[in-house]
């Protein structure tokens, strides 16, 4: 099964996103889709993440990345069927496929929670160096597990920066400072924000007393290395529970 056939089997069509949604993704470099997860799904996922954080302790997130001031978990495809929508949902896959011109596979599925008083990141792209506008290699999706507010460490983005042909440091002396064109993503839990990973973005400071939780379902072109080698990371039991189309998206 090809990736095109797999996307079709998972329900991705030309009409999965409207023309206006595709245009917004092209113009701004990101697209919020509200209501992708139900509140029941959000609650179940948050319960599972809490269990994993306790079970993994100081090793949590080590498979990919640990970050001071955050809770991190990695290799989530292996850790519960609850995460299946993060790499099979047709509307989200349609957005990823639009950015990457249908050439995609899951690179990694991770959890990041900005802890109280923490979470501030410099503006960055999920790619090393500038690219020619229109030549995109990676595309991410943020799965909101809490409401994203102006106070709790929501992601900031610079609309249109994916087409600038620059990196943040080409334009800013200190990318941790606010950018004059940045916007903070404000949306309810259950929303998924698809964003072209060449768009400049970063976490803001969580000024509340609770962690701000999200999943990052990150995709790359199929000729690019995976952040998590899915073939080496998934058990036979996990693979047996996946459809052929889902396995193609994982490239396993």
What does this structure look like?
The protein has 252 residues and is α+β, with helices and mostly antiparallel strands. It has one domain (3-250): Sandwich (Jelly Rolls), CATH 2.60.120.620. The chain contains eight helices and nine strands. The protein has helices at 3-9, 19-28, 39-56, 90-100, 168-171, 230-233, 236-240, 244-250, and strands at 30-33, 70-73, 105-114, 138-144, 155-157, 183-184, 192-196, 201-203, 212-220. A six-stranded antiparallel β-sheet has the order 1-7-4-9-3-2. Strands 6-5-8 form a three-stranded antiparallel β-sheet, with no helix packed on it. Helix 1 (3-9) crosses helix 8. The protein is globular, with a radius of gyration of 17 Å. The termini are close together. The mean pLDDT is 96.
Provide keyphrases for this structure.
252 residues, alpha+beta, Jelly Rolls, six-stranded antiparallel β-sheet, 26% helix
Short recap of the structure:
By secondary structure, the chain is α+β, with helices and mostly antiparallel strands.
Which class best fits the helix and strand makeup?
A: alpha+beta
CATH topology: Jelly Rolls
Low-confidence stretches: none
Helix and strand sequence: HHEHEHEEEHEEEEHHH
Globular, elongated, flat, extended or rod-shaped: what is the shape?
globular
Largest sheet: 6 strands, antiparallel
Q: How many beta-strand runs?
A: 9
Strand content: 15-25%
- Report the top-level CATH class: Mainly Beta
Number of helices: 8
Query: What average pLDDT do the residues reach?
Result: 96
Terminal Cα span: 12 Å
Total number of domains: 1
